Amino acid sequence: MNRFQLNYANYSIVVNSVFNLSSRKNRKGGVGLAPQRHRASQLSAIGLGKSFGNFEALRSLDLTIAAGEFLTLLGPSGSGKTTFLMALAGFLKPSRGRLEEDGVDITDRPADKRNFGMVFQGYALFPHLSVTDNVAFPLKVRKVPAAEIKKRVGDMIERVGLSAHAHKRPAQLSGGQQQRVALARALVFEPGVLLLDEPFSALDKNLREGLQAEMKRVHRETGTTFVFVTHDQSEALALSDRIAIFNHGQLMQAAEPRAIYTRPDNRFVAEFLGRINLLPLEGCSAIDGRATGRLGEATLSAPTGAAALAGRQSLLAVRPEHLRIGAAGADDNSVAGVIADKIFNGAEMSLQVALATGQRLLLSVPDNSAAAALAVGAETKVCWPVESGFILHDDRNA
Amino acid sequence: MTRSWMRYAILLAPLPLFLVASYVLPFFVVAKWSVTDPEPGLGQYIRIFTDPTVQVVLIRTLRICVIVTLVSVTLAYAIAYNWVFGPPKRQRLIEYCVLIPFWISVLIRAFGWLILLRNNGIINESLMSVGVIKEPLALVRNELGSIIGMTHFLIPFAVFPLASALRQVDPRVPQAASGLGAGRMRIFWTVTLPMTMPGVLGASIIVFVFALGFFITPAILSGGRSVMVAEFIYLQLFQTVNWGLAAAISVVLLVIVAALGALLHKVARLDKLVG
């Protein structure tokens, strides 16, 4: 896979060209190449399922993707996110359920009749065709007149900043450039939906960030519905209007990035996205919208939403960045513990505090704070505002 | 270092020595005959390009080779395509059907075709018994017989490089073409076939080179009525005892094959095709 081994010189050129593109846009007062709005489709999966023999890759999925939305499908490998994307594209025939585009059933419509753009993992460019011919392919298939093909392909190649490389073959381009060809090819026929299967997975981290920004800009400009598969959670949080998290072929939660991070529906989502502390509460009871229970000597509270407490083990969940070391305020939870470990992460310091009940709390504190200076083995108190925690059910034991 | 190198050299020496003794040296003798027999000079080479008898044989050989190459590479492409992309059961079936004849002696296969194709053979007998034809079709003891037998023999030689070329096609590329709106026929003609063109050229050269030197199959299936160049060389050696002409044609043939070999090396690396 030679072509993915970018050297430094190579990717700095690409990154520069990304920035040139945006700066050129700015010089022209934000006009640049006049953004063309595409039509956007709404997609619905209704009871959609896919089995391979006994293996259920996708179980009865119900999800509506709004027109113009940037939806990210996120999950560990084998979670069903790619299966769902392939079913959307028409490359996999679902075993159960239906797919609808703007209310029209498209379950049995073959891939070549769906009119969706797709960017593949590894791009799947036509190796025997030039950049121009790659981008022109979907237009030629649609029998667009030659003069119009020439114009639209030229515009699109300019839009992704590859005019200087239009005559080259994919093998002569860097990974980032190939990725833009794939994007141009998928968007040139103005599809109502763009499907993206881990388009950044083969790229360097630095290059990735530049291209993510560009992807977001393309989404804004075209207004097309984007369905994006990734296993990179920071990518999902940065790009999406909404994130759908999958596990074992099931949709665990679909919500806006902030909502899914701050108020995950279940333990899997809470643990999958970022880091979190989960504390089992004993004798949990709900009063005035607050759940209160005991953890060893301490009494801890958290807002309880609509979540019922009946009979199930309740977990108090709180993100490491909400914890602090020191005396409790008026409306804080507080537990005592011993500093067990310290890990330097650059901007922040990760502390692990061992509690008398056996749990370990994970905190992140600024590296220059007094808390970061505490020695391993020091006794301390950890506290956090009641409002920053939330209650989850332990679905592992349920 | 030097001593271990010497040891390997001694171990490896027999094969190159054998090749030099059995191929290279006799070839120089053959090359010498072509310019000395019956008298010194380029007379035999001039004969190749002027004598009508030789011309007929050369043109016939060329015609048969071109037809055999076109037919067998086309059929082999269809077989290789199904072998690589077909359902597992079909893949297994193709493996047997390609490999088993591949292991059977060329002589036995030629006689097999003779039994099938001759005037009172299975094909003509059954066609006449159901009344499709009155007279037996001339399927063998002519050019057609040679072409059928050679095509059958050479198809596996084309299947392997073509299958190898098809296996190198990233399945996501035709899939992408489908996602971009292309139907199956268009995907084949604009994506799959162009992507495997080096394999097609490689297979064509391999088949053509084999066909050029074919001896037993055309000798048996044409019944001496459409002599190809290899059989012609044999006749010059053992029947008309014109060793000079036989040697000159051999040299010309070898030059052509070497040129095609060099071309093959250029269009598609040989190790990639068979590997």
Give a written overview of the molecule:
Chain A is of the alpha+beta class and 398 residues long. Chain A folds into 2 domains: 39-262, P-loop containing nucleotide triphosphate hydrolases (Rossmann fold); 275-393, Nucleic acid-binding proteins (OB fold (Dihydrolipoamide Acetyltransferase, E2P)). Helix content of chain A is 27%, strand content 32%. Chain A has helices spanning 8-27, 81-89, 111-114, 131-141, 146-159, 175-187, 205-222, 233-239, 257-262, 267-272, and strands at residues 43-52, 55-65, 70-74, 96-101, 104-105, 117-119, 193-197, 225-230, 242-247, 250-255, 277-287, 290-295, 298-303, 314-318, 324-325, 332-344, 348-355, 360-366, 379-385, 390-393. In chain A, strands 6-7-8-3-9-10 form a 6-stranded mixed sheet, with helices on both faces. In chain A, strands 13-12-11-14-20 form a 5-stranded antiparallel sheet, with no helix packed on it. The radius of gyration of chain A is 25 Å and the shape is elongated. In chain A, 42% of the residues are buried. By secondary structure, chain B is mainly α. Chain B has one domain (47-274): MetI-like (MetI-like fold). Chain B has helices at 2-12, 14-36, 43-50, 52-85, 88-103, 106-117, 122-129, 143-167, 172-179, 184-195, 197-212, 216-221, 229-238, 243-267, 270-274. In chain B, helix 6 packs across helix 8 and helix 11 packs antiparallel against helix 14 (243-267). The longest helix of chain B has 34 residues, at 52-85. In chain B, 32% of the residues are buried.
List the helices and strands and how they pair.
The complex is a heterodimer of chains A (398) and B (275).
Chain A: H1 8-27, E1 43-52, E2 55-65, E3 70-74, H2 81-89, E4 96-101, E5 104-105, H3 111-114, E6 117-119, H4 131-141, H5 146-159, H6 175-187, E7 193-197, H7 205-222, E8 225-230, H8 233-239, E9 242-247, E10 250-255, H9 257-262, H10 267-272, E11 277-287, E12 290-295, E13 298-303, E14 314-318, E15 324-325, E16 332-344, E17 348-355, E18 360-366, E19 379-385, E20 390-393
Parallel strand pairs in A: 3-8, 3-9, 6-7, 7-8
Antiparallel strand pairs in A: 1-2, 1-4, 4-5, 9-10, 11-12, 11-14, 12-13, 14-20, 15-19, 16-17, 16-19, 17-18
Helix pairs in contact in A: 1-7, 4-5, 4-6, 5-6
Chain B: H1 2-12, H2 14-36, H3 43-50, H4 52-85, H5 88-103, H6 106-117, H7 122-129, H8 143-167, H9 172-179, H10 184-195, H11 197-212, H12 216-221, H13 229-238, H14 243-267, H15 270-274
Helix pairs in contact in B: 2-14, 3-14, 4-5, 4-8, 4-11, 5-8, 6-8, 8-11, 9-10, 11-14, 13-14
